[in-house]
## 1
Amino acid sequence: MQFAHSYDGTGHVDFVGAGPGDPELLTLKALKAFERADVVLHDRLISAEVLELAGKTAALVDVGKAGFGPSWNQDDIDALLVDYALKGQRVVRLKSGDPTIFGRLDEEIEAVEAAGITWQIVPGITAASAAVAGIGQSLTRRGRNSSIRILTGHDMKGFADHDWAALARAGSVAAIYMGKKSARFIQGRLIMHGADRGTPVTLVENASRPDQRILATKLDQLPNDLAAAKMDGPALTFYGLAPRQAAQALTEFKKEHA
């Protein structure tokens, strides 16, 4: 691994986790990387409040991707990273949440390394951590689940397949990223493999942000309730977890008094 060095005019790349959107959840290390950046290549879902923390002279470049929609080609992003760094720029590659979780980090590191450019990873708070805090739960609990699966709803080929039989077992808990469009597919696979139709499912939209919304439903009602909720923002789906009543009430209170 190539680590950061004192700046000598040679380009360098920091792969930085922007967290879920609340600027107060950025790490100090991420903020320092922001302050020294010449250019910030950021994902589509990065909040405006986080981008405002970039250095005053830093150029902001949106290289966002959209599931099943228009997106930057990964090869083009890799080439842009290398191009800026080879020109002596201090580059922040800003990724939503944590860059190591569904962030296409490996392709970008490999491109930077191949060009002989130094880099480091600055971890961030991932959506699952922020969302579970928003519903007043924990990702694991003695007597309930000793493990949690972190899944994606879709991959490069379309809806993602998983070990549905294992996930359908009683007591399973999963955090599903990018799961809105695949909700009916996920529901069908789980029920097909014997999952209890009454299993709680919770979606947290815009986790940690002022406009956070919580949708509590059951597996058998998931697609219908999701369609009725008209969630347009980024949302994380928890399979096997329901929000604590107090946490949901707090979210509603914040919305009413915003």
Note: Residues 12-122 form a domain with the Cobalt-precorrin-4 Transmethylase; domain 1 fold (CATH 3.40.1010.10).
## 2
Amino acid sequence: MKKRILVTGGTGYIGSHTVVELQQSGYDVVIVDNLSNSNADVVDNIEKVTGIRPAFEKLDCLDYEGMDKLFTKYAGIEGIIHFAASKAVGESCQKPLLYYRNNLVSLINLLELMPKHNVKGIIFSSSCTVYGQPDTLPVTEAAPIKKAESPYGNTKQINEEIIRDTVASGSPVHAIMLRYFNPIGAHPSALIGELPNGVPQNLLPYVTQTAMGIREQLSVFGDDYDTPDGSCIRDYIYVVDLAKAHVIAMDRILNDKQKESVEVFNIGTGRGLSVLELLNKFEAATGVKVNYKIVGRRQGDIVKVWADPTFANEELGWQAKATIEETLKSAWNWQVKLRERGIQ
């Protein structure tokens, strides 16, 4: 009997790649997504990759009654991987209440429903934004949580606190919080990848869309930061490597391998790349030029951050394996495939 996992936001970018890895690892997957930043045809493409069609329900995690009914309909859900959230730093500064409602209430609903439906554990999609601008780099899980630079970052901090407080109160829930760095790239099949609705909020889709001619020009926000070339530095993690971390974490919860009821792991490569370095590597890896310009700084951006993934490497037995060149090529192959499919 396959163990059943609920993936919220499962037609989204990271969610869809994680569904593939879960299915290929023998899990039965149920996807919930309101399709606010994704498309239902992702389910078709997941099936093309794995040969298995995941169950899919168009539903908003803010809908408590709807979620309650879903757990009854798909009885025996043992674990949840919670991706469903609004995630753009810039937008969160403009629409803070949207972010607080979407990101906090969706988690609260799940945590209330889990004991009722005997769901053992949850993996929470957290972020390196909880560290703010770290005092020392690379950043470990022991680094202090800084005041958030954006409402988006603040929702991640508050959600981590909600999980800790819920477990501390005696709730039988187990949790692993994965603090991602910057996920990029696409599945090697080029059947799933990052395809946000509207204008991309993340760097690499904007790069590939500009390289394809869909966007006229990429804006690099600031070249006067305290970094070697003046642009912000991030730790870019291949999305498939990130997805695999969720499978390992779920196995850890369901097979009672946790050392504590709530655990935290950094999921990154341990390497920092500046925005301008990433653009240069993209052009070198693909042979395609990107039209970009330097503009002013963007509200909410951290100057530089990259992971110390040692704890995840040693305790989870997980590590990032893809090279940045392979990752950037996968993103471009995905963009080319979208053009072939007549998308954009």
Note: The CA atoms of residues 51 and 240 lie 18 Å apart.
